[in-house]
Amino acid sequence: MNVIEVNKLTKDYGHGRGIFDVTFEVHKGETLGFLGPNGAGKSTTMRHLMGFSKPLSGTANIGGLDCTAKHHEILRNVGYLPGEVALPDGLTGREFISMMKNMRNTKGDDRTDELLKLFELDPNGDVKRMSIGEKRKLAVVTAFMSDPDILLLDEPTSGLDPVMQEVFIDFIRNEKKRGKTILLSSHIFSEVEALCDRIAIIKEGRLISTVAAADVKHGLKNEFTIEFETTDDYDRFIHSGLSPEKGNKSAKKCVISVPDKVTNHFLAALSKCSIRSIDEHSVSLEEFFMHFYKNNKKFGVGGIQNA
Ligand SMILES: Nc1ncnc2c1ncn2[C@@H]1O[C@H](COP(=O)(O)OP(=O)(O)OP(=O)(O)O)[C@@H](O)[C@H]1O
Ligand SMILES: [Mg+2]
């Protein structure tokens, strides 16, 4: 079942800026990673989902509610963590929390207290004097305190220190187990890798691709540089039916990429040879996406194609 549905959503800010025909959905209980370079349109899409901005054309629905027409219900029911946390003047963190609680009709303090403790935030200071990380923690607490089933998280860990990023990732893992539906924009690949079931890529306002995270991970190759004891070992390996990318018989060395599906074959071939050394170089999700970010390449499962 689709909880979030975005259909041909378009907002044209002029000069090629904005979002154009953006279409995707987030299934119930799923975490969809929303990735793309600066200015790609992630925050704009999320603001439309919250009903803060009216589209030029297309639709956005959450839980069957049109995000523009039912803006107030969306505000009450969806946990939103904005990319830029704007806090009002003259309030303490505690007062801001109370204000948001009234707005969202949230009862009880238990969950708020748990969140404050988990993220180690003292809410008694003036919000304007809080550090960037403290403001971000306050936004995390207010997004989650009403325990919403649907969450839009726009770069939730930017500004958090590495320890707090880990705390946040563990927290979201648990929220996923509790069945939450999450749209998460991020520039932090480890966060995306740890949390997302699928990944949607947006660039220059257009959605380029949506892929299953598991397919991306399995499509990544592990590369090995192997040095054999003798040229006989080298020959045996080279003629084992695998296809090394580079080989040098006199140096008794070869370089080979090993996709998941040939791992068994690779290990069997290695077991028949004497090996002097073996170095592994895994292509990380980060390296994979950096190609796409930098080189204007089109993204596809199992590889990167020229656009
Ligand atoms: N209110 C606005 N008026 C005019 N242009 C805007 C407005 N809001 C966003 N834009 C433009 O739309 C584009 C998309 O911006 P958006 O904030 O959605 O990017 P983003 O993907 O969230 O980037 P980042 O990773 O930097 O947060 C940018 O070129 C931005 O300048
Ligand atoms: Mg943004």
Specify the number of helices.
Answer: 11
Distance between the termini: 32 Å
Helix content: 25-40%
| CATH C-level of the largest domain | Alpha Beta
- The coarse silhouette is elongated
Helix/strand/pairing class, anyone? alpha/beta
Q: What is the alpha-carbon Rg in Å?
A: 24 Å
Present as ligands are: adenosine-5'-triphosphate, magnesium ion
Number of domains: 2
Q: Which H/E pattern describes the elements?
A: EEEHEEHEHHHEHEHEEHEHEEHEHEE
Mean pLDDT: 90
The unreliable regions are 299-307
CATH homology superfamily name of the largest domain: P-loop containing nucleotide triphosphate hydrolases
Structure description:
With 307 residues, the chain is α/β, with parallel strands linked by helices. The chain folds into two domains: 2-217, 3-Layer(aba) Sandwich (Rossmann fold), CATH 3.40.50; 221-282, Alpha-Beta Plaits. Helices cover 35% and strands 31% of the residues. It contains eleven helices and 16 strands. The protein has helices spanning 42-49, 71-77, 93-104, 110-118, 132-144, 162-177, 189-195, 213-219, 231-238, 263-271, 285-295, and strands spanning 2-14, 17-27, 31-35, 57-62, 65-66, 78-81, 150-154, 181-185, 198-203, 206-212, 222-228, 246-248, 253-258, 275-282, 298-300, 303-305. Strands 6-7-8-3-9-10 form a six-stranded mixed β-sheet, sandwiched between helices. It has a four-stranded antiparallel β-sheet with strand order 2-1-4-5, with helices on one face. Strands 12-13-11-14 form a four-stranded antiparallel β-sheet. Strand 12 (246-248) and strand 13 form a beta hairpin. Residues 299-307 have low confidence and may be disordered.
